[in-house]
Design a protein that fits this description.
- A hairpin with a 6-residue loop joins strand 4 and strand 5.
- Helix 5 packs across helix 7 and helix 9 runs antiparallel to helix 11.
- The protein contains eleven helices and five strands.
- The chain has two domains: 31 residues, no CATH class; 185 residues, Carbonic anhydrase (Beta-carbonic Anhydrase, Chain A).
- Strands 2-1-3-4-5 form a five-stranded mixed sheet.
- 53% of the residues lie in helices and 13% in strands.
- The longest helix has 21 residues.
- It has 220 residues and is of the alpha/beta class.
């Protein structure tokens, strides 16, 4: 049975363990936040950014939502992006999806899940754009994997096209955007591209990443 009080006890034990191993850890952590990475990931509880990348608290700035979607009118995400790039000066923005994503699965299956249906229209748009390629995969599991991958690629482009990133590149700030997918079945992160570091790279690198995925599908 779930018990919030147990979480507080777990926290006390964890804090004591950390202090015993590194007495100065919390003092250092309280003094500064200097992440080099902004992680835009899925809200899925099985994909903790710090843990799967081996990073300590303070080393990665995190934004999560259902199906790791980047919407140009989402002020929450845009505020996080602007804060990370302009104030924290992160150098890398990582859009990370994961195989077996429930939001992507609901979109693919045409399932209604409630209010979140409105949010998942963004994933539905990705499916519509690439439906011929996705449906050619045949098996549901394969189609789900492909839509998870393509959703990441499209969200990388969406990040690159925000005014926050465009302004950063215009003033010469170094910011690279990456597309990754996490495998729940093996715990491994996969760099599926495109890695974009300038406005003129968005279209060709997106095209190259799509071609690479197509070649992988043909070889499978």
């Amino acid at each position: 049975m779930s018990d919030p009080a147990q979480l507080l006890e777990n926290n006390r034990q964890w804090a004591a363990r950390v202090r015993a191993e590194d007495p100065g850890f919390f003092a250092r952590l309280a003094q500064q936040q200097t992440p080099h990475y902004l992680w835009i990931g899925c809200s899925d509880s099985r994909v903790p950014a710090n843990q799967i990348t081996g990073l300590a608290p303070g080393e990665v700035f995190v934004h999560r939502n259902i199906a790791n979607v980047v919407v140009q009118t989402d002020l929450n995400l845009l505020a996080v992006l602007q804060f990370a790039i302009d104030l924290l000066r992160v150098e890398h923005v990582i859009v990370c999806g994961h195989y077996g994503c429930s939001g992507v699965r609901a979109t693919l299956a045409g399932e209604r899940v409630g209010l979140a249906d409105n949010w998942l229209r963004q994933v539905e748009a990705v499916y519509s754009k690439h439906q011929v390629v996705i449906d050619a995969r045949g098996e549901l599991a394969d189609r789900l994997d492909r839509l998870c991958e393509l959703n990441v690629l499209e969200q990388v482009v969406n990040v690159a096209r925000t005014t926050v990133v465009q302004d950063a590149w215009a003033r010469g700030q170094k910011v690279s955007i990456h597309g990754w997918v996490y495998g729940l079945h093996d715990g491994l992160l996969r760099d599926i591209g495109p890695t974009v570091g300038a406005s003129n790279e968005v279209v060709p690198r997106h095209r190259n990443a799509l071609s690479s995925l197509s070649r992988q599908a043909s070889a499978a």
